[in-house]
Every structure is written in C-alpha cells, then in structure tokens.
Amino acid sequence: MTFSGSNAGAVTWESARMKSQGVASYPSFSTHNQGFFTRNMRRISSSLSSFSARDDAGYAKKDDLKPAQCRTPLLGRIRTLMARTSRKWKIRALITIILLACYILFYVTPLHYYWRRTSWLGGGQRFVIILAANVGGGVMEWKGAREWAIERDSVRNKRKYVARWGYELEIVDMSTKKRYAHEWRESWEKVDSIRNSFKKYPKAEWIWWLDLNTFIMEPSYSLQSHIFNNLQKHIYRDINEFNPLNLTHPLQANYLDPEALSPVGDGNVDSVNLMLSQDCAGFNLGSFFVRRSEWTDQLLDIWWDPVSYEQKHMQWEHKEQSALQQLYTTQPWIRSHTAFLPQRMINSFPTGACNANGNDTRIHYDQNDRDFLVNMAGCEFGRDCWGEMYNFRELSYYLNRNPWERFKEDLVAVIWYKLTGQKVRL
Amino acid sequence: MHYAYPPRKDSHPAPFRPRRSRLLLLRRSQLKTIILFGLAVLGFIWLLSSSKHKGPRVITGRPPVVVVTVFDDKYDNTAYSQHIKDNRIQYAEKHGYGTFIAKASDYELSGAPSSWSKVVAMRHAITKFPDCKYVWYIDQHALIMSPSSRVEEHVMGAQRLEEMMLRDHSIVPPESIIKTFAHLKAHDVDLVLTQDKDGLATTSVVVRNGEWAKFFLDTWFDPMYRSYNFQKAETHALEHIVQWHPTILSKLAIVPQRAINAYSSVEHGAQYKEGDVAVVFAQCSGTGTKSCANEAERYSQQWRASFGASH
C-alpha cells in the first residue's frame, strides 16, 4: 500500500512541478523535452538493470513475495516493451511475424511441394518425366561400375528435380525384353512406356521423355517458367528456321487443306502435341515432350508399323527416331501438330557430340547461358559417359551454389589464397 | 521495489486521435460495390483468358455430304463418265450435297496403281468442302439408285447405324482374329465400310469429316503402303491399317454390304435389290457383255425413272 501511495504522490508532485514550470517559462518557447535524453530518460533508465541485493537475506525474503514479473525479467521486459510500442508498430510487427511464419510454414514443411503439385495451383501434376534407365541392360551387356554410377547420378538428378517442383517421375526399364526379341521391335518401347504413363498418371498433360545420359543442369528452372508459360514464344513450327535434314516445308500437294499447307499449322499453340529439338543430324528424341491428346494416341499407334518397318529398318539407323522423321516428312497430319524447341532449351549437347563443324552455338552447352539440360548423346560410342556425367554434375553444383557457399569460396578462400598462398576448401 | 521513475500516465497525450484504418472508414455499401467491381474485373479477365483456348474448328455441315467419284483417265470425257457424273450431280442436287468429281491423273501417286487416287480424292474433297459433315466416296463403276436416301440419315443416322453395324465381326473373314468393337456407339463411328466376298470393300466408303478423317486418310495414303505392292493396292493397305492400328479400328463400323455397296452381280458379294441406295459394278471389265458400260446401261433407265418420279 505504501508503494502505491508513494506512487500516487509522485504523480501529483510531478504534475504539479510540470505545471508550475509551464507557467514559469515563456509560453511560446519551451526548453523542456528538447533533447533525446530528456525525452527518453525514463525509458532508458527503466530498461537498465535494477538494483537488487540478492545476497541480502532480508531482501531475499521480500523477493519471494514479489509478483512473477520480477522473477522472470525477460518476460517482464517483453511486456514493458509491448506496452511501450505504439499500436501501429504492434500491427506492423504482427504482420511481419505472420508473414515470416507463413514463409517458414510454406517452405520448411512439405506444403510448398503439395502446392506446386496440385493441378489447379502450381500444376506440377500436369508434367510427368519419363527417364529411360537400364538401356539394353540384361541382355546386351554387363553393367560395370561406371554404368551403375551414371544411372545413379542421372536418376538422383531427376528425383531431386521432380521433388522440387512436384512433377511425377517414371523410371522405365529399357532393358531388352524377351517379348520383343522375336519381333522387330527392339528399342520401340518408348511408345509403350509413354502410353503406360498416360494411363498411370491420369492428371498428366505433358510427358517429358529423357534419355539416361541427360543431366538437368539448372534445377531451379521449372518447366512452367522455362517453357510452358510462354510456349508460343519458345517454339518454332516452321522447320525452315533450322532444317538440318533439308526437308521441304510446308508440303507441296494440290489436295491438301490450307492448314496442312501452312508452315505453322493452324498457328494456335493449343494444337501443338509434340515438341522436340533438332541436332546437327535431324530430329533428336533424347529429350522431347508429348501432350495427352487424341493426336498423340494416333501418333503412338502409327509410329511403329510393320509395313514401313519391313521396308525401312535397314536404313533406319535410329529406329523410332528415324521412323518419326519419316512420318514427319510424309504425313501432313503429323506436321501440323509438331513443334520444335531450340535445342539448347531442352537438349544441349556437350562439345563431344555433333562436333564435325566445331562448336555450334545452336547445339552446344554454354555455361554462361545456364542451359537447362545437357544430353550426352552418343557418349557410349567411343566417349567417356561417366566422365562427362561427372563433370557436368560438378559444374551444375558449382553454378548453383548458394550465397553462403559463394561467399566462402569466391571471397574468403580467394583472400586467404592471396594472403597465405594456400588453397583452402571451406 | 525501487523504480528509477515511477510508472505513470503519459503526460504528453497525442494531439490528435489515432488514425483508424482506412478500411473501417468505408461504409458497408461502398465495400459492396468495390467487391462487386473486383469480381467483375476478375470475371472479365477469366473470360478473356478462356477465350484463348479455342477447340478445333466447328464443322457446320454445309453441305452435309460430299459425293466423291474418281474417274480413270481412260474414261475422261466419255459418254460413260458423263452418265455417271450426271447420276452424282442429280443425286447431290436433290439433297443439297456437294459433288467432287476428280481424275486419277490429277494426283501424284509416285508409280502406285491409279486406284490409290480415291484416298487422296477424299482428302481433296475435305479441302474443297471443309464444312461438310460426311464424305461419301462411291466408285466410278457405280450408280446411285435411290434418290430419296440421305446419307446422314440412311447410313450415318445414329439409330440406323447402331442397328446396322456388325459388332464383333471379323475384319477379313474368315481367318482374321481382329474383330470390330463389340460396344461401339454411333457417335464414335468415323468410318463406315462394307465387306464383300474377298474382304473389306473400298468401292463405297463413308468418312466423317474432322481431324480424325485427315489422320486416317493421310495414314492410308502413306507412301510406304503405296510402294509396298499390296496385291489389291489400297484395299489391302486399308485391311492392314485397320487390323494393326486400334485408333482406326475403334472408329470403324462395318455395315451389311447392301447398305451402301450392293453389287450388280452375285459373284463378288451381296446382290443389288430394288430399294438399295447404290449399285456397284464390281470388277466389271472394259469390254464384253459384262463391261462397265453395259452394266451401267442396264440400270440407266431405272435410276432416271426413280429420280424423275421423285421430283
């Protein structure tokens, strides 16, 4: 009670003093409350540690009677801080905290994964990546340590990518199957796998086929932002833009409709059902997209035909790829629904491939441009698949270091090297 | 407890009332208009964005049917071809159909037999009449006998087609294990064929215009098939694609032969009877009593009479 009484007395005294001072001073000019310390004296002094004689037994007894506020100074301090901040700042702080919490909740928990997956939010479920693994395995050759390592790295790369963006990954076993061994269909399982995947993932709109010897160099690119949000801008439907096969385009015939005679089909981006890229030798099916549609069903159905196969299989060096080229060349309905992507958008080559004319900016990987995917096409023919895979993997990690790693490696380590002449790994 | 300064009320009260958030200042009615306006804007954006995704072109069905006939070059400008043409034109005029009469040499077949030109002529007819609903190819050696039968009802009418079509029926009897679908609905049918004694017949074919028709005709006309030397050219190529490619088989209805493809003689298939839509002079020869011209002459009176009567 004495405490509160003295308190009340202090207030009256203070107010009286203020009043008298206000009266005594000049009305238009006040020297009070001018400096920072004068104004904030109480705040500063109250946040200073208060005197408390803990060792003193007499005071210790009194301490026990004190309210909880004094025993937990942190809580008390927070409470006074809360009391002191204005309402505006309180709301601002609250909003900041909520936003931060949301951010953490979104990115730390798997919530962002489900967001990106859901077809009406991020739309990740609309994309399925098919990775062809175990090519020719089982029958054609033994898999050595290098082959296993290639497979492990390639699969892990795609796993990480789909986990990041919420896509589906289907790893298909391309080992030579007995069921085709007596037929002519080796290496045509592509068609079957694509068909099965459309069945297995009913929400899939686009299937992205990837060969085993590919590496996604920039996992931070989503398919949507990289290609699909701006499809019309990225694709070219007129093959004359880049025409290594020297095909006549559009078709010349007196019976065809204007759409089939037009170099770009109907020009509507929604009618594109197949997107692939061309390398120096023509079509490349190491990385291509097909959209779920009736047209795609028809293509997958017609792709392998025994009559064409019987006549052409000796010339068709690349089997289904050559067959598609043949179809594109002769069939108007294929042309008007096929589009091409610039090769380096989805299918950059290392310098070892397609290098008859030296380095080609249309074909070969360039780390300065941060190409999306590298396809070590043809590395099994006299090149070192595992070496290339390893180098590209390390390059991808190097290019995609986080800011802290960059700080350590590009600044601290360099300075250390300048100072001491020693290279360090941080 | 000793405080440096005792707690107290702020002796410098704020000169103004604290500002209340702007949203609270809005009246409820104003809020409502704002929300409505926002919704309208969103709806407008949605309308704009959805109009971008337009489906395939709508086929209006004008004319409803195009009758396609291709003449070999040897019949060019003969009395025979004039007779057949006359038959087609009169039939088409009656129902407001289009006619598409072509010459085999109009098309580059790269050495394949001239009978292949029927495939490309159908494709050409679609180009010429992009809004037609059906294409009816009928052979040069055939006459349309019944002026009152409309293709879109008599053949493609949903109920009629479902009654007629042969379900679970071998494509090439008797040995083919590939059969027509057992549960096919009329609206799924894009191609109507008949069979004669040898297998599928291509002397009278109905195709529904659309993306599928282009796919089917382009596939049928594939140069790989033309260069393969099928014994019966495009007919065997058709048998081949129907049996190998389910996307074609699933759109196919086989109807009894007399529905669109009755033969003049019983040797090769079902014989024409009074009231059938058309008569085909199957495998008629160039000369002799069974020549195409003689056969046509036999039916000339009949079709002219029935066409005249129905005027």
UniProtKB/TrEMBL annotation, chain A:
Keywords: Glycosyltransferase, Membrane, Transferase, Transmembrane, Transmembrane helix
Residues annotated as transmembrane: 91-115
InterPro entries: Glyco_trans_34, Nucleotide-diphossugar_trans
GO molecular function: glycosyltransferase activity
GO biological process, one term: protein N-linked glycosylation
A GO-annotated cellular component: Golgi membrane
PANTHER family registered for this protein in UniProt: ALPHA-1,6-MANNOSYLTRANSFERASE MNN10-RELATED (PTHR31306:SF5), ALPHA-1,6-MANNOSYLTRANSFERASE MNN11-RELATED (PTHR31306)
Entry's family note: Belongs to the glycosyltransferase 34 family.
Protein known as: Uncharacterized protein
Automatic annotation (TrEMBL), chain B:
Family matches, as Pfam families: Glyco_transf_34 (PF05637)
GO CC, one annotated term: mannan polymerase complex
Lineage: superkingdom: Eukaryota
Membrane spanning residue stretches: 29-48
Keyword Transmembrane helix: yes
Presence of the UniProt keyword Iron in the record: no
GO biological process: protein N-linked glycosylation
InterPro entries: Glyco_trans_34 (IPR008630), Nucleotide-diphossugar_trans (IPR029044)
Keyword entries, A-Z: Glycosyltransferase, Membrane, Transferase, Transmembrane, Transmembrane helix
GO molecular function, one term: alpha-1,6-mannosyltransferase activity
PANTHER family per UniProt: ALPHA-1,6-MANNOSYLTRANSFERASE MNN11-RELATED
Family statement: Belongs to the glycosyltransferase 34 family.
Stated name of the protein: Glycosyltransferase family 34 protein
The organism of origin for this protein: Xylaria multiplex
